[in-house]
Amino acid sequence: MIKLLIILLFNFSFAQTVIVSGVSLSHDNDVAACIDSGYGGDVNVEVRLESLSASLAYAQSVGASMVVRSTTGASSYLENAYTYYPDILVVMPSGSNSYINVFDYEIPQVIVATGEGTDSNHTGYKAEFVDDNPLGTEHLSSFSNGVIAGKLLKIKEQRAGTWWNARYAAQQTATASTANSGYGIINVNNAIAFAGSLPDDPIQDPTPPDPPVPEIGIVSLTATRDRDNITLSFSADNAVTYNIYRDGVFLTTTEDTEYMDTPDRSENAISYYVTAGEQVSNTVSFNYRRYSKIIFKN
Q: Helix (H, G, I), strand (E, B), or coil: what is residue 194?
Protein backbone atom coordinates (compact mmCIF):
# COMPACT_ATOMS: atom_id res chain seq x y z
CA MET A 1 0.00 0.00 0.00
CA ILE A 2 2.80 2.40 0.91
CA LYS A 3 4.72 1.45 -2.24
CA LEU A 4 1.64 2.13 -4.38
CA LEU A 5 1.16 5.52 -2.74
CA ILE A 6 4.78 6.44 -3.44
CA ILE A 7 4.38 5.48 -7.10
CA LEU A 8 1.21 7.54 -7.41
CA LEU A 9 2.84 10.56 -5.82
CA PHE A 10 5.89 10.19 -8.07
CA ASN A 11 3.75 10.09 -11.21
CA PHE A 12 1.65 13.01 -10.04
CA SER A 13 4.73 15.12 -9.43
CA PHE A 14 5.44 15.08 -13.18
CA ALA A 15 1.87 15.99 -14.20
CA GLN A 16 1.76 19.07 -16.41
CA THR A 17 -1.18 21.25 -17.36
CA VAL A 18 -1.90 21.71 -21.07
CA ILE A 19 -3.99 24.58 -22.40
CA VAL A 20 -6.00 24.01 -25.57
CA SER A 21 -6.54 27.43 -27.12
CA GLY A 22 -9.29 27.49 -29.72
CA VAL A 23 -12.56 28.80 -31.08
CA SER A 24 -15.03 25.91 -30.74
CA LEU A 25 -15.75 23.93 -27.59
CA SER A 26 -16.74 20.76 -29.45
CA HIS A 27 -13.72 20.91 -31.73
CA ASP A 28 -11.28 21.61 -28.92
CA ASN A 29 -12.70 18.95 -26.65
CA ASP A 30 -11.86 16.53 -29.47
CA VAL A 31 -8.35 18.01 -29.60
CA ALA A 32 -8.07 17.38 -25.86
CA ALA A 33 -9.08 13.74 -26.43
CA CYS A 34 -6.33 13.43 -29.05
CA ILE A 35 -3.78 14.81 -26.57
CA ASP A 36 -4.79 11.99 -24.22
CA SER A 37 -4.40 9.54 -27.11
CA GLY A 38 -0.87 10.69 -27.93
CA TYR A 39 0.09 10.80 -24.27
CA GLY A 40 -1.29 7.33 -23.58
CA GLY A 41 -3.42 8.36 -20.61
CA ASP A 42 -5.35 11.21 -19.07
CA VAL A 43 -3.76 14.65 -19.28
CA ASN A 44 -4.76 17.69 -17.26
CA VAL A 45 -6.18 19.67 -20.19
CA GLU A 46 -8.03 22.98 -19.93
CA VAL A 47 -9.91 24.27 -22.98
CA ARG A 48 -10.09 28.04 -23.39
CA LEU A 49 -11.90 29.80 -26.23
CA GLU A 50 -9.68 32.85 -26.71
CA SER A 51 -6.71 34.18 -28.65
CA LEU A 52 -3.37 32.44 -28.46
CA SER A 53 -1.79 35.44 -26.75
CA ALA A 54 -4.46 35.33 -24.03
CA SER A 55 -3.98 31.58 -23.61
CA LEU A 56 -0.21 32.00 -23.28
CA ALA A 57 -0.61 34.63 -20.57
CA TYR A 58 -3.07 32.39 -18.77
CA ALA A 59 -0.78 29.37 -19.13
CA GLN A 60 2.04 31.31 -17.51
CA SER A 61 -0.22 32.35 -14.62
CA VAL A 62 -1.21 28.75 -13.81
CA GLY A 63 2.17 27.16 -14.51
CA ALA A 64 1.08 25.29 -17.64
CA SER A 65 3.93 24.03 -19.83
CA MET A 66 2.18 23.68 -23.19
CA VAL A 67 -0.39 25.50 -25.31
CA VAL A 68 -2.01 23.60 -28.18
CA ARG A 69 -3.86 25.57 -30.83
CA SER A 70 -5.38 23.53 -33.63
CA THR A 71 -6.01 26.33 -36.11
CA THR A 72 -4.00 27.88 -38.91
CA GLY A 73 -1.99 31.05 -38.35
CA ALA A 74 1.22 29.66 -36.87
CA SER A 75 3.36 32.13 -38.83
CA SER A 76 1.63 35.10 -37.21
CA TYR A 77 2.12 33.73 -33.69
CA LEU A 78 5.90 33.28 -33.71
CA GLU A 79 6.62 36.46 -31.75
CA ASN A 80 4.10 35.54 -29.05
CA ALA A 81 5.55 32.05 -28.78
CA TYR A 82 9.11 33.39 -28.38
CA THR A 83 8.00 35.52 -25.43
CA TYR A 84 7.07 32.46 -23.37
CA TYR A 85 9.62 29.93 -24.63
CA PRO A 86 11.23 27.76 -23.24
CA ASP A 87 8.87 27.56 -20.26
CA ILE A 88 5.83 27.11 -22.49
CA LEU A 89 5.81 25.22 -25.80
CA VAL A 90 3.29 26.05 -28.53
CA VAL A 91 2.12 23.27 -30.87
CA MET A 92 0.18 24.19 -34.04
CA PRO A 93 -0.59 22.72 -37.49
CA SER A 94 1.62 23.81 -40.37
CA GLY A 95 -1.12 23.49 -42.96
CA SER A 96 -4.85 23.54 -43.55
CA ASN A 97 -7.40 20.77 -44.11
CA SER A 98 -7.44 21.67 -47.82
CA TYR A 99 -3.86 20.33 -47.95
CA ILE A 100 -2.28 23.77 -48.32
CA ASN A 101 1.02 24.45 -46.59
CA VAL A 102 0.74 27.85 -44.90
CA PHE A 103 3.81 27.78 -42.64
CA ASP A 104 6.70 29.04 -44.72
CA TYR A 105 9.51 29.03 -42.16
CA GLU A 106 12.54 26.88 -41.44
CA ILE A 107 11.93 23.80 -39.30
CA PRO A 108 12.29 23.58 -36.35
CA GLN A 109 10.89 26.88 -35.15
CA VAL A 110 9.81 28.10 -31.74
CA ILE A 111 6.37 26.70 -32.60
CA VAL A 112 6.22 22.95 -33.19
CA ALA A 113 4.67 22.84 -36.67
CA THR A 114 2.65 19.66 -37.20
CA GLY A 115 0.72 17.94 -39.97
CA GLU A 116 -1.62 15.04 -40.66
CA GLY A 117 -0.49 12.07 -42.70
CA THR A 118 2.97 11.11 -43.85
CA ASP A 119 3.30 12.51 -47.37
CA SER A 120 2.76 15.69 -49.34
CA ASN A 121 -0.81 14.73 -50.21
CA HIS A 122 -1.83 15.46 -46.63
CA THR A 123 -1.29 18.46 -44.36
CA GLY A 124 2.04 17.13 -43.14
CA TYR A 125 4.00 19.11 -45.73
CA LYS A 126 6.83 21.18 -44.20
CA ALA A 127 6.14 20.09 -40.66
CA GLU A 128 8.42 19.15 -37.80
CA PHE A 129 6.29 16.09 -37.00
CA VAL A 130 3.30 14.34 -38.56
CA ASP A 131 0.79 11.78 -37.33
CA ASP A 132 -2.58 10.24 -38.12
CA ASN A 133 -5.97 11.49 -37.00
CA PRO A 134 -7.28 8.99 -34.42
CA LEU A 135 -10.87 10.23 -34.66
CA GLY A 136 -11.57 9.14 -38.23
CA THR A 137 -10.25 8.55 -41.71
CA GLU A 138 -10.41 12.18 -42.82
CA HIS A 139 -7.07 13.98 -42.83
CA LEU A 140 -7.77 16.60 -40.16
CA SER A 141 -4.63 18.36 -38.94
CA SER A 142 -6.36 19.65 -35.79
CA PHE A 143 -6.52 16.19 -34.28
CA SER A 144 -3.11 14.92 -35.39
CA ASN A 145 -1.80 18.13 -33.83
CA GLY A 146 -3.24 17.02 -30.50
CA VAL A 147 -1.68 13.56 -30.82
CA ILE A 148 1.77 15.03 -31.46
CA ALA A 149 1.39 17.41 -28.49
CA GLY A 150 0.51 14.49 -26.23
CA LYS A 151 3.51 12.49 -27.40
CA LEU A 152 5.91 15.37 -26.77
CA LEU A 153 4.41 15.89 -23.31
CA LYS A 154 4.97 12.23 -22.47
CA ILE A 155 8.56 12.33 -23.68
CA LYS A 156 9.33 15.48 -21.70
CA GLU A 157 7.89 14.02 -18.52
CA GLN A 158 9.70 10.70 -18.83
CA ARG A 159 13.04 12.29 -19.74
CA ALA A 160 12.56 14.92 -17.02
CA GLY A 161 14.23 17.54 -19.21
CA THR A 162 13.49 20.66 -21.19
CA TRP A 163 11.20 20.99 -24.18
CA TRP A 164 14.24 21.04 -26.44
CA ASN A 165 15.46 17.82 -24.81
CA ALA A 166 12.13 16.18 -25.66
CA ARG A 167 11.93 17.63 -29.18
CA TYR A 168 15.47 16.65 -30.13
CA ALA A 169 15.02 13.10 -28.84
CA ALA A 170 11.76 12.89 -30.82
CA GLN A 171 13.44 14.22 -33.96
CA GLN A 172 16.31 11.73 -33.78
CA THR A 173 14.06 8.71 -33.32
CA ALA A 174 11.03 9.59 -35.46
CA THR A 175 10.13 7.72 -38.66
CA ALA A 176 9.78 9.78 -41.84
CA SER A 177 8.27 8.11 -44.90
CA THR A 178 8.97 10.95 -47.35
CA ALA A 179 11.02 14.11 -47.50
CA ASN A 180 7.79 16.06 -47.14
CA SER A 181 6.89 14.58 -43.76
CA GLY A 182 9.53 16.43 -41.74
CA TYR A 183 11.10 14.26 -39.05
CA GLY A 184 8.06 12.01 -39.36
CA ILE A 185 5.95 10.15 -36.80
CA ILE A 186 7.18 10.31 -33.21
CA ASN A 187 8.11 7.01 -31.59
CA VAL A 188 7.54 7.78 -27.90
CA ASN A 189 9.40 4.80 -26.45
CA ASN A 190 12.44 5.29 -28.67
CA ALA A 191 12.53 9.00 -27.88
CA ILE A 192 12.39 8.34 -24.14
CA ALA A 193 15.25 5.88 -24.47
CA PHE A 194 17.37 8.14 -26.71
CA ALA A 195 20.84 8.44 -25.16
CA GLY A 196 22.64 10.54 -27.75
CA SER A 197 24.30 13.86 -27.02
CA LEU A 198 22.05 16.89 -26.85
CA PRO A 199 23.15 19.98 -28.81
CA ASP A 200 22.38 23.50 -27.69
CA ASP A 201 18.82 24.63 -28.21
CA PRO A 202 18.87 26.44 -31.59
CA ILE A 203 15.77 28.37 -30.62
CA GLN A 204 17.13 29.59 -27.31
CA ASP A 205 20.81 30.37 -27.75
CA PRO A 206 22.48 29.63 -24.39
CA THR A 207 25.15 32.24 -25.10
CA PRO A 208 23.70 35.76 -25.09
CA PRO A 209 24.88 37.88 -28.01
CA ASP A 210 27.59 40.43 -27.38
CA PRO A 211 26.21 43.93 -26.89
CA PRO A 212 26.61 46.15 -29.94
CA VAL A 213 29.86 48.08 -30.06
CA PRO A 214 29.21 51.84 -30.23
CA GLU A 215 30.50 53.47 -33.38
CA ILE A 216 33.64 55.54 -32.85
CA GLY A 217 33.25 59.19 -33.77
CA ILE A 218 35.59 61.50 -35.65
CA VAL A 219 39.02 61.92 -34.05
CA SER A 220 40.04 65.54 -33.52
CA LEU A 221 43.70 66.42 -32.91
CA THR A 222 45.51 69.56 -31.77
CA ALA A 223 49.17 70.14 -30.80
CA THR A 224 51.03 72.59 -28.58
CA ARG A 225 54.74 73.03 -27.85
CA ASP A 226 56.66 73.87 -24.71
CA ARG A 227 60.30 74.25 -25.70
CA ASP A 228 61.20 70.84 -27.22
CA ASN A 229 58.13 68.99 -25.89
CA ILE A 230 55.13 68.61 -28.17
CA THR A 231 51.81 67.80 -26.47
CA LEU A 232 49.12 66.17 -28.59
CA SER A 233 45.48 66.47 -27.47
CA PHE A 234 42.89 64.23 -29.11
CA SER A 235 39.42 62.82 -28.55
CA ALA A 236 36.68 60.82 -30.26
CA ASP A 237 33.25 59.68 -29.11
CA ASN A 238 33.20 56.04 -27.89
CA ALA A 239 36.95 55.58 -28.39
CA VAL A 240 38.79 53.45 -25.83
CA THR A 241 42.34 53.50 -27.18
CA TYR A 242 44.26 55.75 -29.54
CA ASN A 243 47.22 54.99 -31.83
CA ILE A 244 49.71 57.82 -32.30
CA TYR A 245 51.83 58.30 -35.43
CA ARG A 246 54.70 60.69 -36.15
CA ASP A 247 55.56 61.20 -39.82
CA GLY A 248 53.48 58.12 -40.64
CA VAL A 249 55.41 55.85 -38.24
CA PHE A 250 53.59 54.26 -35.31
CA LEU A 251 54.74 55.55 -31.91
CA THR A 252 52.45 54.08 -29.26
CA THR A 253 48.93 53.18 -28.13
CA THR A 254 47.33 54.96 -25.22
CA GLU A 255 44.01 55.15 -23.40
CA ASP A 256 44.72 58.76 -22.44
CA THR A 257 43.60 61.73 -24.50
CA GLU A 258 46.94 63.48 -24.33
CA TYR A 259 50.43 62.43 -25.31
CA MET A 260 53.75 64.31 -24.98
CA ASP A 261 56.46 63.68 -27.52
CA THR A 262 60.04 64.95 -27.55
CA PRO A 263 61.50 64.33 -30.99
CA ASP A 264 65.22 63.61 -30.96
CA ARG A 265 66.07 65.38 -34.16
CA SER A 266 66.48 68.80 -35.72
CA GLU A 267 64.72 68.45 -39.07
CA ASN A 268 62.32 71.21 -40.05
CA ALA A 269 59.24 69.22 -41.07
CA ILE A 270 57.29 67.08 -38.59
CA SER A 271 53.71 65.80 -38.55
CA TYR A 272 51.34 63.78 -36.37
CA TYR A 273 48.04 61.99 -36.70
CA VAL A 274 46.01 59.74 -34.41
CA THR A 275 43.71 56.79 -35.12
CA ALA A 276 40.90 55.22 -33.08
CA GLY A 277 39.40 52.09 -34.55
CA GLU A 278 39.00 52.82 -38.23
CA GLN A 279 38.81 56.57 -37.70
CA VAL A 280 41.83 58.72 -38.63
CA SER A 281 42.33 62.21 -37.24
CA ASN A 282 43.34 65.34 -39.02
CA THR A 283 47.11 65.75 -39.51
CA VAL A 284 49.02 68.35 -37.50
CA SER A 285 52.27 69.41 -39.17
CA PHE A 286 54.75 72.18 -38.54
CA ASN A 287 58.39 73.21 -38.75
CA TYR A 288 60.31 71.80 -35.82
CA ARG A 289 63.64 73.01 -34.60
CA ARG A 290 64.84 72.82 -31.05
CA TYR A 291 64.06 76.01 -29.10
CA SER A 292 62.40 77.50 -32.10
CA LYS A 293 58.91 78.85 -32.62
CA ILE A 294 56.26 76.45 -33.95
CA ILE A 295 54.67 77.58 -37.16
CA PHE A 296 51.39 75.64 -37.55
CA LYS A 297 50.21 74.71 -41.03
CA ASN A 298 46.70 73.40 -40.23
A: coil
